[in-house]
Amino acid sequence: MISKWDKSGNTGVDNEQHLENFISERLSMTNNRIDTYNLSKTYFTIGTVQNQAGIEKITLLNLESAEVIAKWLYHNIVGYNLDYEGTLWEKIKFSFSK
């Protein structure tokens, strides 16, 4: 999905429907799996990818979505936000465990 989004020429998502349309039109098998298992989805781009003499090259590097995807993955794996600072009790508890 990553390379296909980069190849789409889009550097962001206008709205949720924009992402839905992209996945259903260009990634039908992925879309079926997402729908079957009711999976979450987001986009990720590294910037602009262009084909130069048969070789795909990154011509504009943009890592803003890297933060978005990292936080999204962390939340989906761990169950809370990456920038969650914790309650006062959690801060005290973790300070003693270091």
What's the SSE blueprint?
Layout: H1 2-7, H2 16-26, H3 28-37, E1 47-52, E2 55-61, H4 64-78, H5 88-96
Antiparallel strand pairs: 1-2
Description:
It is a single chain. This protein has 98 residues and is of the alpha+beta class. It is built from 5 helices and 2 strands. It has helices at residues 2-7, 16-26, 28-37, 64-78, 88-96; strands at residues 47-52, 55-61. Strands 1-2 form a two-stranded antiparallel ribbon. A hairpin with a 2-residue loop joins strand 1 and strand 2 (55-61). Helix 2 packs across helix 3 (28-37). It starts with a helix and ends with a helix. The relative contact order is 0.12.
Number of DSSP strand runs: 2
Taking the sheet with the most strands, its summary is: 2 strands, antiparallel
Choose one word for the global shape: extended
Rg for CA atoms: 18 Å
**Cross-sheet strand order for the largest sheet:** 1-2
Chain-averaged pLDDT = 80
Calculate the terminal CA-CA distance, rounded to whole Å.
39 Å
Order of helices and strands: HHHEEHH
Count of helical segments? 5
Low-pLDDT segments: none
What fraction strand? 5-15%
Helix content: 40-55%
Class from secondary-structure proportions: alpha+beta
